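Let us work through a complete example step by step.
Step 1: write down the sequence.
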Amino acid sequence: MTRVQMTRHDGGSGTRQEILAAAAEIIGAYGYPSASVDRIITLAQVKPGELYAQFDSKDTLAREIIAVREQHAARVRRAAAASGAPALETLIDETMALAALRDGDVFCLAGDRLLREVDDAWEEVAASRRRDRAEFSRLLRDARKQGHVLPAAGAPDSTGATDDALAQVVLASMIGAGIGARTMRDARDAVSVLESLWLLLVPGLVPQSLLPRYHEAIGSSASHHRRQRLP
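Step 2: predict the structure and record it as tokens.
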């Protein structure tokens, strides 16, 4: 059952939600450039006039999908922050949760694809990237203060540039996990790809004495979020 069919089945708010769900499915599957209005209309089973009565352009649809993605991602961040775990464990679990959300939520899949395919000229895209970088940088900075990130990791300086650079690496890893999940035959979901990437990253980040702890934390988080994706 598609998200559009689920919207109808669950008594959703009608045409607007059906169109938005259809746009998310089409963008997630084909990418923004190939997500034609005709495809969206066909999947939503509406007339062109019904679409344009709700959304004046494909850009408007895409911006709303990004907004929905941000709402869902914010819930994930709040849940991760409430765990009380050390900052680096929180960061690992947050990225796993976001990856699982992308695998199971059509709005997050489409929203993440839009964030890759649309440039920073869209304020929604630029703001989302700034939020992700700032959140990851803050958690890495806290992890360094807690002694869970090596002082030498990334050749730190007093400007905080190292944590920002590491945050970029984490963000790039998340993006790579989404791409890899669609192209690697032996790792079909983003959580599995991200688990492998974290296992490669942590030996250069954490003190040797904490490596067993973080290997266990990565495996536990990945297993948990894979279970969350089961129907």
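Step 3: interpret the result. Confidence is low (pLDDT under 50) at residues 5-13.
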